[in-house]
Specification:
Radius of gyration: 13 Å
Oligomer: single chain
Order of helices and strands: EHEHEEEHEEH
Strand content: 15-25%
CATH topology: Rossmann fold
Number of strands: 7
CATH architecture: 3-Layer(aba) Sandwich
CATH superfamily: Response regulator
Number of domains: 1
Number of helices: 4
Strand order of the largest sheet: 2-1-3-6-7
């Protein structure tokens, strides 16, 4: 995976929570976000760890969430993010049909991910917040 840093660093100064239980994909997501200037929290591979990270950090600007974390659905975390007005995207192997009705408006990036496009989407969500 090759993501070239961009000169404007659109995520510079932003803190992004990464919630992904597949090690290599989590690493790729982290690298892509860092290449765009983001400070990354995580990655977290378990729902409990991600929830604790959310509770422990005052500044989280956005999140990338895998829907299925070790056979546990991440919708409770999504509810917390939404309640705190933190924009997020789903990065998952599931299709739109697996997403709870309340989250049909959330951008869904199916694996294998286009990391550059996903990071760009996340940037736009942060800017429009």
């Amino acid at each position: 995976m090759s993501v070239r840093p961009v000169s404007s660093n659109p995520l510079a100064g932003r803190h992004v929570l990464v919630v992904e239980d597949e090690y290599f994909l989590a690493d790729d997501i982290v690298r892509a976000l860092q290449a765009l200037g983001a400070g990354v929290l995580g990655p977290c591979g378990e729902l409990e760890d991600a929830t604790r990270m959310l509770d422990d950090h005052l500044t989280i600007d956005a999140a990338v969430i895998d829907i299925n974390l070790r056979s546990e659905m991440a919708f409770p975390l999504a509810r917390l993010l939404r309640a705190r007005s933190i924009p997020f995207v789903f990065a998952t192997g599931f299709d739109r049909a697996a997403v709870d009705a309340e989250f049909q408006d959330i951008h869904l990036w199916e694996k294998p991910l286009d990391l550059t496009a996903m990071a760009r989407d996340l940037t736009e969500l942060i800017r429009s917040r």
